[in-house]
Amino acid sequence: MIVILKEGVTRTQIERVERRLIDLGFKTHPIYGEIKTVIGAIGDKRNVNRNAILLMEGVEEIVPIMLPYKLASKELYKKPTLVDIGDDIQIGGTQLVVMAGPCAIEGESEFIEVAYKIKESGAQILRGGAYNPRSSPYSFQGLEVEGLKILDMARRETGLRIVTEVVDPRDVETVDRYVDIIQIGARNMQNFRLLKEVGNGKKPVLLKRGLAATITEWLMAAEYIMNEGNENVILCERGIRTYETATRNTMDISAVPAIKEMSHLPIIADPSHATGHAKYVPSMAKAAIAAGADGLIIEVHQDPPHAMSDGEQSLRPNDFISLMHELSKIAQAVGRSI
Ligand code: PEP
Ligand code: MN
């Protein structure tokens, strides 16, 4: 529920209300607005006497949050959330944020080479899998800690920020030490132990939509992370499973405006996993930006036919650089910059 406080409420009154809510078993989320302060209170309100809070000094009203997702909903946070990546990048603002790089880190020299191309394109964040969740146990699974060290090196050499996926709760602490954004992949969107583990930290989390997840289920996954205290969640539409086989998945462009309506969290799009074909990536990247996405994550590999994973959907570095130029026109048309 949302406890709305009166205009001019004092700091002591706010603290008293918050303390009462905590004593009643709620987790509290105070939001200090320009005019009004509200406290989001998340917990079981069935056995709570409403008047125990309503009649406290400084309290104006109590409004229930009807949606199953509370912290991720716009009922609680009306303004769009801006997720800070360090002190110079914000996801969710006018400036679009592009993440790019190979599906998997295959070796040091190849990765550093592609990292410089990503830098040249104007993208801000470098991607590369160190722990790759593959559909087959016989496929390349990633370089693990060695991969994280290569990511770190690329970060120091190019100044790009880093995003990588974590697949096991036991690796969260290690991955957290190396990266700027922790990715939760589609296959793990409902791995609740993993969600809680990244929720315990402070690192921004890129939460991909599950292979067959509804938007509400996806927001409930975000809620798991936020409920642990980490509200730096960035959603990523990466296509969902449908009956269509011409593309790897079906990119749900309408998820972008739907998320903007339902949540304050930023959303980016992944046209690479969504289509599975490099030739379709530019069109879908443009469509996502036109629909209002806050950024993109795109797979780029210097030699796609020989990539150890997801070569068919990876752009060559120069094609990615051309796409970035084209995207800037779309961005401009919708009042954004790239
Ligand atoms: C990836 O980003 O390489 C990946 C495995 O993505 P997804 O979880 O969306 O399939
Ligand atoms: Mn991939």
Offer a few descriptive terms:
338 residues; alpha/beta; four-stranded antiparallel β-sheet; 11 helices; 34% helix; 18% strand; elongated; binds phosphoenolpyruvate; binds manganese (II) ion
Structural features, described:
It is a single chain. The protein is an alpha/beta fold and 338 residues long. It has eleven helices and 14 strands. It has helices spanning 11-23, 51-54, 108-121, 145-158, 172-178, 192-199, 215-227, 255-262, 271-275, 281-291, 317-333; strands at residues 2-5, 27-32, 37-42, 59-63, 83-85, 89-91, 97-101, 125-127, 161-165, 181-184, 205-208, 233-237, 267-269, 295-299. An eight-stranded parallel sheet has the order 13-12-11-10-9-8-7-14. The protein is elongated and about 70 Å long. Phosphoenolpyruvate binds next to loops.
Quick recap of the structure?
The chain has 338 residues and is α/β, with parallel strands linked by helices. It has helices at 11-23, 51-54, 108-121, 145-158, 172-178, 192-199, 215-227, 255-262, 271-275, 281-291, 317-333, and strands at 2-5, 27-32, 37-42, 59-63, 83-85, 89-91, 97-101, 125-127, 161-165, 181-184, 205-208, 233-237, 267-269, 295-299. It is 34% helix and 18% strand.
Q: Approximately how much beta-strand content do the residues carry?
A: 15-25%
H-E string: EHEEHEEEEHEHEHEHEHEHEHHEH
Number of helices: 11
Shape: elongated
Question: Total number of β-strand segments?
Answer: 14
List ligands, each type once. Answer: phosphoenolpyruvate, manganese (II) ion
CA-based gyration radius: 21 Å
Name the helicity range: 25-40%
- Mean pLDDT level: 96
The class by helix and strand makeup works out as alpha/beta
